[in-house]
Amino acid sequence: MSMPIVITSALRRVQRGHGKGFTAEAPRGPVHLPARIAVMLAFAHTMRDEIAQSRLPDQAEAARRLGVTPARVSQLLDLLSLAPDIQEHILFLEAVDGRQPMYERQLRPLVRERHWSAQRAAFDQLRRRATAPTHTSMSQDRTP
User: In the chain, which ranges are continuous DSSP H helix?
Assistant: First the structure.
């Protein structure tokens, strides 16, 4: 007859690679990584340089080598039309504990703006919305 295992400490779920389990270790603190949009923008700069230096003949070849559609390559390269100060801000963004500060899709309307002043205004609005506190609805606050 096996004895039941009694755990008296607090456990938290962890994932290492594909394995999942539990540990009694306290969390190490927030994990800061470059935001996905920052990596995409840096990659767009690299891709533009590769095309400019004729290491890649064109965007279509870049798409074939990356295994994405030419439209996706265009979307990435469109990020380069953002105002330089917006690009700089994006390159320094961090994802904290996996939470992305913004997404490429949110920036698509900005890239269509021709004037950097309009881009800056729209980007400021986007940043304010991203940092605004979320409010719960009244129905969620009620207790039965």
Answer: 36-52, 59-66, 70-78, 84-91, 104-112, 116-131, 138-141
